UniProtKB/TrEMBL annotation:
It comes from Pieris macdunnoughi. This is Uncharacterized protein. Keywords: Signal. Residues 1-17 form the signal peptide.
Length: 231
């Protein structure tokens, strides 16, 4: 009986979406805003500790002032030093009804994009250059880090799932060393700004997506549907 009811509900949802105007989730904008806010609150409660930055290694074999400099330097213990803003891009808040004919299922996707502005990432810098131990600290500033967030509800089974996808905007801000020295001036030009992207992928899949799903399942349930209602 439950199987038949679920099948009927899925079919009705699809039919209604084709024949009625403004089939939608009631007040999806407020729901998504609060969903993301609760997610961020959990991350902040943990002092952003889940947002670790992967270590990066830099191989050096450069000629500077007619002298060859060789060595390996590791950027480790990366973390967010500062962030100017964390906002939700309002134009990306939307609901999408998707019907898959092959599986005869309808899903509801609640989408949004979270943006971190002017994010400074700090590193400890250690290695060996020309046979000598090297230690320093460095930061790099990213003008924008974005995360596309999606909460998915299967209207056939009511099962929830989530996913998150990072976007890292290119930065012309090179590593800033403190103190600056001859070696750091070489390292500035060897660091690949995109080396941070794998860290953002981890934040998306292991931090933001799981927390969004748990928030929706345990404390912030999806609101009801509205058929033929005003936008």
């Amino acid at each position: 009986m439950r199987f038949l009811l679920c099948l009927l509900f899925s079919l009705l949802a699809f039919v209604f979406s084709q024949t009625l105007s403004n089939v939608r989730l009631a007040d999806h904008t407020s729901y998504i805003v609060e969903l993301v806010q609760k997610t961020v609150d959990r991350v902040q409660k943990n002092n952003w500790n889940g947002l670790k930055v992967h270590d990066v290694s830099i191989e050096i074999d450069e000629e500077v002032l007619n002298k060859t400099i060789q060595g390996t330097v590791f950027l480790s213990n990366g973390f967010i030093v500062s962030m100017q803003h964390l906002t939700l891009v309002s134009s990306t808040i939307q609901q999408a009804w998707l019907y898959t004919r092959a599986t005869n299922t309808t899903t509801l996707e609640l989408r949004s994009t979270m943006q971190m502005t002017n994010v400074a990432i700090g590193f400890d810098v250690d290695g060996t250059i020309d046979g000598e131990k090297y230690h320093n600290t460095a930061t790099i500033l990213y003008p924008s880090m974005q995360f596309r967030l999606v909460l998915v509800r299967n209207l056939f089974t009511d099962e929830l799932s989530s996913r998150a996808e990072p976007i890292l905007w290119r930065t012309t801000n090179q590593l800033q060393f403190l103190p600056s020295d001859t070696f750091s001036q070489v390292l500035v030009h060897l660091y690949d700004w995109n080396s941070t992207f794998p860290s953002l992928q981890t934040w998306a899949s292991e931090v933001f997506a799981p927390i969004i799903l748990d928030v929706a399942e345990t404390e912030h349930p999806i609101p009801g549907f509205c058929y033929d209602c005003p936008a």
